[in-house]
Amino acid sequence: MRPHRDGVDDVRCEPMRSGDEPSIRVVIVAAHRAGSAGYYTNDEIDAFARAIINDPFDGLAERAYFHVATLDADVIATAGWVPFETDLARLTLVFVRPDWFGQGIGRRLVTLVETHALASGVAALAVRSSLNAVGFYERLGYVVDRPMPTELGTITIGSTLMRKPQP
């Protein structure tokens, strides 16, 4: 079901604002919970939610190129990039609120941050993908590089490093 298709043209992609952190947390936790069933255990999903809720996001706007998608000032999606390795940018915190899954908002934000990263001089793009998002990134041209587990306190969850070949 695609309940928001008619409103997709009203969605704005804009830089993260300092007051966006609480809304960003809600989007990330909701998206991960909704998309992770069948890929992660309940304990793993809960550990991820705790990590996001407790992450202070200190300096996120300063250390990452970070954007949100909004509709009527409500954050509905997030995406950013950070330097990762020499000449490599890593996408980070790419999440879409579940009621907006499948509307092209994630693709729009990823394209925006990819464009900015490449324009800044990085030679290549990568992402640490949750297991349930591998197909999304493959559709955007990313290929699996290697497993890259995510440590969440006493729990380690599966994730995959993916890279996007550049022409």
Report on this model:
This protein is of the alpha+beta class. The protein has a single domain, classed as Gcn5-related N-acetyltransferase (GNAT) (Aminopeptidase), CATH 3.40.630.30. It has helices spanning 21-36, 42-54, 60-63, 105-119, 134-139; strands at residues 12-15, 65-71, 74-85, 88-96, 124-130, 143-147, 150-152, 155-157, 159-164. Helix 1 (21-36) packs antiparallel against helix 2. The longest helix is centred in the first third of the chain and has 16 residues, at 21-36. The radius of gyration is 15 Å and the shape is globular. It starts with 11 loop residues before the first strand and ends with a strand.
Secondary structure layout:
Blueprint: E1 12-15, H1 21-36, H2 42-54, H3 60-63, E2 65-71, E3 74-85, E4 88-96, H4 105-119, E5 124-130, H5 134-139, E6 143-147, E7 150-152, E8 155-157, E9 159-164
Helix pairs in contact: 1-2
Salient structural properties:
167 residues, Aminopeptidase, two-stranded antiparallel ribbon, 5 helices
Helix proportion range? 25-40%
Report the C-alpha radius of gyration, rounded.
15 Å
Number of helices: 5
**Uncertain ranges:** none
Q: Give the percentage of residues in beta strands.
A: 25-35%
Topology as a string of helices (H) and strands (E): EHHHEEEHEHEEEE
Mean pLDDT: 89
Q: Strand order, biggest sheet? A: 1-2-3-4-5-9-6
What class, by secondary structure content? alpha+beta
What CATH calls the topology is Aminopeptidase
Anisotropy-based shape? globular
CATH H level, superfamily name: Gcn5-related N-acetyltransferase (GNAT)
Sheet having the most strands: 7 strands, mixed
Ends apart, CA distance between termini: 36 Å
CATH top level? Alpha Beta
